[in-house]
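Here is the promised in-class demo. Please do not try to memorize the tokens; focus on the logic of going from shape to residues.
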């Protein structure tokens, strides 16, 4: 099935337009997120592990307006209070903090 005007456009999901350095950063970030996911999955469950890892990375981005190169960088930079709050909320099924609450913290 072809869609109108799609046959001549570049695939927006392709990694071809990234440099090798950018691809290396993406790969490193993905590997550290997978290690963190396995760590939290061993303590809790798969969905809780996903929530913790995603919320740590998003919270880092919301506060510092830049992506962390590794999960460890995000975790260590956010500090004890914020990471403990993320884990507590994920384990207890509570919603994540809003972007405004994160910046105030």
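The designed amino acids, position by position:
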């Amino acid at each position: 099935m072809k869609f109108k005007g799609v046959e001549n456009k570049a695939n927006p999901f392709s990694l071809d337009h990234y440099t090798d350095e950018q691809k290396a950063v993406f790969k490193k970030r993905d590997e550290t997120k997978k290690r963190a996911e396995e760590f939290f999955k061993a303590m809790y469950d798969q969905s809780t592990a996903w929530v913790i890892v995603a919320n740590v990375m998003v919270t880092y981005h919301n506060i510092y307006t830049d992506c962390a190169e590794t999960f460890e960088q995000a975790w260590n930079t956010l500090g004890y209070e914020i990471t403990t709050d993320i884990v507590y909320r994920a384990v207890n099924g509570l919603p994540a903090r809003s972007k405004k609450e994160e910046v105030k913290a």
